[in-house]
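Lab meeting minutes (informal)
Scribe: AK
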Amino acid sequence: MFLRSCALVALGFVLAPEVEASDWVRFRGPNGSGVATDSTPVPTTWSESENLKWTAKLPGPGLSCPIVVGDRVIVTCWSGYAVEKGELGSLENLKRNVLCLDRATGDVLWSHEEEPILPENEFRSMFAENGYASHTPTTDGERVYVFFGKSGVLAFDLGDGRKLWQQKVGENLEQRGWGSASSPIVYKNLVIVPAFIEGDRTVAFEGATGKIVWSQDSPGYTSNWSTPILVEAEGRTDLVMAVPGEVWGVNPDNGKLRWYCEVPGSDSARASVVADGDVVIAMAGGRGGSTSIAVRAGGKGDVKDTHLVWTGRDVSSTASPVIHNGKMYLVNNKVATSVDMATGKRIAQTRLTATASGQPEEKPEAQPERPAPGSDQGNAQGQRGGGGRGGYGGGGVGGQDYSSPVIAGNTMFYNSRNGDVFVIELGEEMKQVGLNKFASDKTDFSATPAISDGEIFIRSGSTVYCIAESKK
């Protein structure tokens, strides 16, 4: 029985009051940071026979990340079509699934199967790298909000799984067949949905009713798979998001653009922005992307000359970065990089290696500094106009890793697509201290892990794993 209070009390500034600080309630956890806020130690070693609390089999695959709220774990997947490699079946049988698991046991407390709005992309080519369940759900502690692309936004009662409402946000299919992946977030009493691919817009719904509070369209959302965050600056809250060629600060109460800053060399947005206080990091994505920027939130209009903190050349075009103790950490092509948050200068690099001991075999060759992209590559766009470079920018690369690093304490975890989870000790230097793997699971591990109260939740294409220190 779900024991959280549903009393109507004043809403918190960003999260509803039913959500605890240690909960992991959206893509990349607390405000999209990828950093666990509680101090409970987490295991650094695990396998099928060590520190595995439970497993939960899923009815099908997916790339969405698990979320954790109180005594519950929520995860989405798809079923009925393209579940087994080489045996696609009929697209007419496709279903979208939402499961609520008991955090203590992994048992299914409730589930929902949703009929999709067809036609959908066929499971082939680059779309097969993404699939039909890539948007991570979110919650305000009372309701669960799920985004299924052109099939819309759905709200469920967290306690018993009753479907409360459903709203469409657009029925566009990504023209190259790459799908969509941006995830919803909660702000005050709103659930904000980045329907970048489906409708070239962002939409805010009243969480309790599904009523549209505001909707802002823009051709500048093209080629966008990122998820926004909330940043407090200059006495207000900005909804900050990456878009192709820029980073935007939007008023979360009405969706109107407040400020923008160029991200040179970018023709798509794949990595999500991350913040250190009021300083936001955005990464270039797509062809020619070789720039990262730090920009202070706040301001009005073009803030390039007033709020830009630094421009760097270390990027992670798909995995989102993570910030810890004054350093930014990136993982790209199995190379972990640390960057000084004050200056944007690279501090160190280490190659992540899947050796038997989990220790790096060698240091990576020094990567030469690349010249900054020309200013003509940073064409401005957005609600004020634009529409990307040539209409559509670069996209994903088949077979690459899609997950993002997460941090608990002074340890960073990063899982690659084949299931290798690298354990990196953070401090003056980065040091790979371990490698973990569920060897019997041959499905993709493309979802970013969740961390809460000393437990790590890892999701593959078939299973959710709860990792916790075994009681001796």
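Next up, CB showed the second protein from the same session:
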Amino acid sequence: MLATLGSNVTHTTSPVAPPEVRGTWLTTTANEAISSPSNTSVTMKRLREIGLNTVYVEIWKNGYTEFPSNTAKKFTNSELRINPSPSGAIQRDLLQETLIEAHRNGLIYIAWFEYGFMAAHQSTQNELRARKDWLSLDQKGNEVAKNGFVWLNPLHPDAQSLLLGIVKDAIKKYDLDGIQLDDRIVWPYIDMGYDEFTQNLYAKEHNGNRPPLDVKDPEWVAWRTRKVEDFSKRFVREIRAAGGKDFIISLSPGPHPWAKENYLIDWPAWSKWNDNPTWDEYIPQVYRMNYPSFQRDWYQQVEFMGNRKTDLIAGVRLVGDGPEQSRNDVTKHAELTRATQTGGHCWWFSRGVLDVFPKELANFYNVPQNGQAPHPRFGSQWRPLPIKATRVRTSTKWRATLTPGKWQLIAKIAGAWQPIKTVKIDAK
């Protein structure tokens, strides 16, 4: 973990509210929150002032990383691309930009590899979609799944290497607090898996018998479920080795048992591994159109997690439409996560936080009276406030008083903060 040496940001640090995850997802879709460096700066400051402590920022979307990645360049011949982005537009390192601004404001930063094994939207033609031998197909040979996307085959070794590689690239290059995948780490839908690669692998392990035509055949379902779990175990092992013991490995699946019945992901079973490192936090997407439906399904998720409920965080729908968006009901979801003594809540998505209900959420968190809530895994001093360096008169040198530890020196260049170097201050 690096503290930040840069322009100071003012926000209350005392008193301290009880620890909980107060998060939101940030995406380039359907909002302007991170559409420019200036917007990113304002967004991170506002999120902290409202009372949030964690951001999950999209950095892998529609077949491209939104940061420079050698792995992406190897597999797609494209180092990065911000989506949406007009052809020929100047590319930003969205990860670096959002990471610096988040840490300047004391926010925990989780790099969200949003698309997982999704290669492209059905309206998109890109390098991944062109690799027909990598794609997952249904019985009729269709590559577009029921959700309108084209998916890589989660069992194909090249697809697995691509996903693992881009995640490791980000961990190696940036001072992340964690990474996140969701239910796009699995199958596009229960009717997929009839591509040649998967059929041949199944036949090899079933005395030459090809997969049955019944997509819900018990052994065919169980086999695909086991294969995805095998990759999930490998993913966690390798990312734990790359990120270290304090690094958050986050999963945001669909609610159980719906996700298992439709996408063949049995994530509550993943939380109970005793032969492999497990995911650190689980954020089921309990996106419901009204609070009673959320309440019913959230109690189920808590029960499924058993004795790991403190690692369970609610994914809550907050987009500005639907009957749940009553001004009086917005924060009931967060109150329920506290009542069930789970790890916290995460809002889908930042547009609801910033543009629709900022007053309601700010009043709910009430930072001036209650203080900021530290992240339960890191505590209040994990990301200290930045320290502003002052220029020595008649000199090109700068001066700052730093406590022992590792600090990242940043400077604003052409309107955006850039990393300069890392300095280590030893204890005297």
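CB comment: The longest strand covers residues 416-425.
No objections, moving on.
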